[in-house]
Amino acid sequence: MSAPGFVRASLELARKDLRLEWRTLESLSSSFVFSLIVLVIFNFAFGVETVKQLGAARLVPGVVWSVLAFAAVVGVARSMELERRRETLAALFLAPVDRGALYGGKLLANLVKNTILQAVVIVLSAVLFDFDLFAIAAPTALVLLVHGLGLVELGTLFAAVATRVGRGEALLATLLFPAAAPLFISAVKCTGALLDGRGLAGESRTWLEIAIGFDVLYFLVALATFEFVLEE
Fold first, then answer.
1. Angle at 79 between CA 109 and CA 214, to 5 degrees
2. Which of 55, 139, 179, 186 gets the highest tally of CB atoms within 10 A of its CB?
3. Phi, psi values for residue 192, rounded to 5°
4. Distance in angstroms (rounded) separating the CA atoms of residues 97 and 50
């Protein structure tokens, strides 16, 4: 019997990870609780009046993307930690599939979970910081998807590194945040432009295009190196 193709194998592996997640909700619940606590703390620290005085465009982007960045670390790290606890990394590596499909499956599963997390965080942010999300829903979804994809691409690769050397979220964050700095800058710029009513035009569009370029770069680098990460 021939080995499954890249896409099919990636989908099967992603389905396996998501089934495990839906049974326990370990990764999502940890990320949700963390995000809620941090958003509430920021809400009490700034207050709605301060947000209104300074403008949501100046405060909210930094808060939202700080929460999403650290919550993504929690979620991605847990997904790889589960494989380590079950001692299934070696079994996955021995499976008769394209080695890149191992990365593709993890990436798809983490992307689904991260997208759910982003949706919850942005809605909670709109409620707590009192800005009109519905007016900018479509471009906000695009910004979240583009930047969330790049964050998960890097996070999935670096989570494998951290798991392989026996380190956890601390090492993952140390590796991820510097490498993802262009994404964070772009995300804050684009989100600020949307909240300021300028839309994705001019400078913010340029930042979005830069983020898309980094998404492609991160994916290609991770796909080429993931096999060696598992081997080492």
1. 60
2. 186
3. -60, -40
4. 54
Tell which wins on pLDDT, 217 or 163: 217
Going by C-alpha positions, the residue among 93, 223, 105 that lies closest to residue 157 is 223
What is the residue-wise DSSP string for the chain?
Answer: -PPPPHHHHHHHHHHHHHHHHHHH-HHHHHHHHHHHHHHHHHHHHHHHHHHHHH-HHHHHHHHHHHHHHHHHHHHHHHHHHHHHHHT-HHHHHHSSS-HHHHHHHHHHHHHHHHHHHHHHHHHHHHHHHT--SGGGHHHHHHHHHHHHHHHHHHHHHHHHHHHHTT--HHHHHHHHHHHTHHHHHHHHHHHHHHHTT--S-THHHHHHHHHHHHHHHHHHHHHHHHHHHHH-
CA nearest neighbour of 78 among 16, 19, 28: 28
What contacts 147, CB < 8 A, 6 or more positions away?
65, 183, 184, 186, 187, 190, 211
Task: Dig out the tokens for 126 from the structure.
Answer: 């709109």
Q: What is the sign, positive or negative, of the torsion defined by CA atoms of 202, 208, 211, 216? A: negative
What local confidence, expressed as pLDDT, does residue 92 receive?
Answer: 64
Tokens of 172: 């993952």
**Helix orientation angle between 99-129 and 56-86, rounded to the nearest 10 degrees:** 140
Displacement of CA 7 from its chain's centroid (Å): 21
**Residue 38: which pLDDT band, with cuts at 50, 70 and 90?**
very high
